[in-house]
Design a protein that fits this description.
The chain is α/β, with parallel strands linked by helices. It has 2 domains: about 5-180 and about 300-390, Zn peptidases (Aminopeptidase); about 185-295, Alpha-Beta Plaits (2-Layer Sandwich). Helix content is about 35%, strand content about 30%. The protein is built from 10 helices and 16 strands. The protein has helices at about 5-10, 10-25, 35-45, 105-120, 140-150, 210-225, 265-285, 305-320, 335-340, 370-390; strands at about 50-55, 60-65, 65-75, 125-135, 160-170, 175, 180, 185-195, 195-200, 235-240, 250, 250-260, 290-295, 300, 325, 345-350. Helix 4 links the parallel strand 3 (about 65-75) and strand 4 (about 125-135). The radius of gyration is 24 Å and the shape is elongated. The protein starts with a helix and ends with a helix. It binds zinc ion (ZN) (2 copies).
Length: about 400
């Protein structure tokens, strides 16, 4: 068996160089032009068939092996965040107010490293490697746009792989979990409409503030009373706005919030109950509610067989005792749009190093990770792809 860890090790300095260059030059969703250009040049030099401008700034690289076989797609997200960096690193962001605070700079570097390792093995390959560098993971649903623009066609992938550097876990570890790992997410907007009036004459008004308070309290029962205690869901109200004056009952209150679920049937139940509670409780208060529920991303659900292959790859690189299973989060990830169509595995790559102070949470201005994760990530992805293609 090839020693992908040793091969990735030889790329170490370049992986770090790429990552730090991207880190210095963060680009927001759908604006990843510089990043995309560097990726596309690199892929072309390695002999990949390259398509650019997919979902504005996305890049797709195809490496066809010498013999036919499965198509393995590996996805890397490229976008940075509206965060002002406070790491003090010598490779800190050179763009004010923008920062790679989620580690996508590392993902792009890993993708370039993987591209290089696999290009060297093209003659042994049976099948096709499809590397997808995706814009706008952070709330822009770049993956959905890529799917709409046909990224899952010509050729259609048989297997989907993706990873995320993960500062909730130490570097040198990985978590590979079958089944749901990230939640389906929706945003809801709710307007509770009453009738405004004088604060001293509530009997002449319909008070949307009191109605909203009851709606919010009743929403807490959706998960606790309608979802199985063995299943998982979240309903959170994140904003509430109503009224301007201490002695005025306002005409309406606006709220927004989010709903997170894993199982499609649970999702249906929760969406239905949120609607019933919002409309019913408002009506009981004499108010009227307008509720809009907007789906953001489906759940990320890992295929059991592919997760097993990725687990073996991670164990080969890290050692079996350093690969866990069971990490799940109610966060969301637009890789789900690819995984709705193609069975796959999305795994968490440990990247924190508390001794070096590299353990701030994702999206924090002090976020940074141990670059050892780049070497290990490339080795695991190459090993996993090799199980299908070599
Ligand atoms: Zn993020
Ligand atoms: Zn991220």
């Amino acid at each position: 068996m090839a020693d992908f860890k040793a091969e990735a090790e030889r790329l170490r300095e370049r992986l770090i160089g790429w990552r730090r260059d991207f880190h210095r030059h963060p680009e927001l969703a759908f604006e990843e032009r510089r990043t995309a250009e560097i990726v596309a040049d690199h892929l072309r030099r390695l002999g990949y068939q390259v398509q650019t401008g997919v979902a504005k700034t996305g890049v797709v690289g195809l490496l066809e092996g010498a013999r036919p076989g499965p198509v393995v797609m590996v996805r890397f997200d490229m976008d940075a965040l509206l965060v002002t960096e406070e790491t003090g690193a010598e490779y800190a962001s050179e763009v004010p107010g923008r920062m790679h605070a989620c580690g996508h700079d590392g993902h792009v570097a890993m993708g370039m490293g993987l591209a290089e390792l696999m290009a060297a093995r093209r003659d042994e390959m049976a099948g096709t490697l499809k590397l997808v560098f995706q814009p706008a993971e952070e709330g822009g649903n770049g993956a959905e746009v890529m799917v709409k623009e046909g990224v899952l066609k010509d050729p259609r992938p048989d297997v989907f792989l993706a990873t995320h550097v993960w500062n909730e876990r130490p570097v040198g570890t990985a978590d590979v979990t079958a089944g749901p790992v990230m939640a389906a997410a929706e945003k809801f907007t709710c307007v509770v409409k009453g009738r405004g009036g004088h604060g001293a004459l509530p009997h002449l008004a319909v008070d949307p503030i009191v109605a909203s308070a009851q709606v919010i309290a009743a929403l807490q029962t959706v998960v606790s009373r309608n979802v199985s205690p063995l299943d998982t869901a979240v309903v959170s109200v994140g904003s509430i706005h109503g009224g301007d004056a201490f002695n005025v009952i306002p005409p309406q209150v606006e709220m927004t919030g989010t709903i997170r679920t894993y199982e499609p049937s649970t999702r249906e139940t929760v969406l239905r109950r949120v609607r019933e509670v919002v409309e019913g409780v408002s009506a009981a208060c004499g108010a009227e509610a307008e509720l809009e529920i907007q789906p953001l991303t489906p759940a990320v659900i890992n295929d059991a067989d592919i997760a097993e292959v990725v687990r073996k790859a991670a164990e080969a690189v890290l050692g079996p005792e350093r690969v866990t299973s069971g990490e799940r989060t109610m966060g969301s990830e637009d890789a789900a749009f690819f995984m709705e169509e193609v069975p796959g595995c999305y795994f968490f790559l440990g990247s924190a190093n508390a001794d070096k102070g590299l353990d701030a949470p994702h999206h924090n201005p002090r976020f940074d990770f141990d670059e050892e994760a780049l070497v290990l990530g490339v080795a695991i992805l190459a090993q996993a792809a090799a199980f299908y293609l070599l």
